[in-house]
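Write out the 3D structure for:
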Amino acid sequence: MTSENFIDLPPLISAQGTVRLPGSKSISNRVLLLAALANGTTEVRDLLHSDDTERMLEALRTLGVSVDALGDNAYRVTGCGGNFPVKDAKLFLGNAGTAFRPLTAALALSGGHYELSGVARMHERPIGDLVEALRQIGADIRYLGNEGFPPLEIFPSMVAGDMLEVRGDVSSQFLTGLLMALPLTGRTVSIEVVGELISKPYIEITLAMMARFGVKVERQGWQRFVVFGGQRYQSPGAIYVEGDASSASYFLAAGAIGGGPVRVEGVGKNSVQGDVRFAEELAKMGARITMGDNWMEASAPEGGKLKAIELDCNHIPDAAMTLAVAALFADGSTTLRNIASWRVKETDRIAAMATELRKVGATVEEGADYIRVTPPQSSVLSPQSSIDTYDDHRMAMCFSLAAFGGAGVRINDPGCVAKTFPDYFNMFKQVTKPVPVIAIDGPSASGKGTVAQRVAQALGYHYLDSGALYRLLALAAARDDVALDAETELAQLAARLDIRFEGADIWLDGELVGDELRTEQNGNAASKVASLPAVRKALLGKQKDFRQAPGLVADGRDMASVVFPDAELKIFLTASAEARAERRYKQLMEKGMSVSITALLQEIRQRDERDSQRSVAPLQQAPGANLLDTTALNIEQAVQAVLVQYRA
């Protein structure tokens, strides 16, 4: 079920298939800015379509750069030779760090007056080290809010000096912005990195992209970079954006957890992106990894279970988040170190990751620059956990993997993936297989309960009698003296019921219940509580919890339409009213109860009429359900008919 606020992912049992990755966010925004700064016209192909790239495209157009969409994620950018035509502008850059930091540097050295702002979270992300470095060579930048943070105002200035320093331990985007902007000065400038440089692979991407546009940088270790004067960016003509290696991590992890193989295309062993090394780290957890020039593939370990690792993640800061969730499926405690940069991303990712991992039952220890994850002792993660995403695309995508934990997972605000991967959940669905469900519905006395139960036994699947849930609630309400019209109290009672089906036996709060469920009095009470929206909502999650490997057969009125709309097979079981009356007559006579078949027939017809007119879950054939008329069939024949359809 989806809405604008959440997406419910069903419990998953396997992953297999091929995914074509969207373009890399890091490469996309670097290439767009370099194409704008270059001499000549550049065709940028396979550009990522996302919020971050949209912010960069909007900014470049506002600055007077000609950008034409060519279709199929291709754009023609006519460079301005380092001289933006518009010298006075206000730019809104959302939460796009890959646009905000490099544009700050480029505009500070371009001789214009500009204001740069973003969303509230962007104004909490530090930029003081970049501003201070630019001021060292004469840039005039002022803070419009808190010192050290956006929004910023940039004024024309006279650039002077041939050396500057910048901290390397907060964000590699500061160094990236400086490297890309310094050729605009026309002079040789050296950059000294103070402290350890984090996220070195992202600097390698920057240097590689600058080289494609004709500007070489001398790297002296990781502490000193020399940008020589006299160089100008020149268009390479056409440039292709690699698939996003960070996005590949979710699908590779799905293959490692869900069996695989899952192949990602668009990035491989020859990639300029450091996050391709995620595959190597996943291999250390036992995953089977194969790679080609432009593809990677992952399958589960030979024994099927990942193993815990301890890892310095400086080289894969973004993709390391995927390892934190993959740790839920590993033997032992996984420790990820050197991830202090998580604290200053779209959210405080260490704190957010720890909070959400605990929701699914993990034991988590967090520090200033590390996180340690111990999976829950139970093989099933906490059912129907609701994951908050903090407006962070990577939180949403990482936690989709929790659906392999034997229970469904709800991802709140799934739209945040638009930042880098708008189609993520659709593509994730294409390569994953949910726990299969057979949903069987039909009118009263059609035999749906008996057929569903026997189909479940034949397949070795779990069984859910949804009608029994309402009868059990009615029984519990009588036991606890809760009025049948006390909707709030009934909903609270429904949420805490402990219900278990074992073959033909039904257990309520640890006690075996039997014939009292089937009394006419309890049936009437069940009908009343089933009409209450709050009760149905409270039981919805409990019904979904029955969906566990290897599969589920669910019988009931809204199983195929509301609870499990993605059921692999939907059956609407029916029979003539006369046949159903005769079956009910035989059942009651076998129990020694004296009844009138004429009265039974009348009762069934009246109930069919009532059920079809109900405002809540009316009796009707669900869209996509197969009609099975059992008037001329016995139970065994009806069961075989369902099994034949399922196996087909």
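The chain has three domains: 6-21+253-431, 25-240, 437-647.
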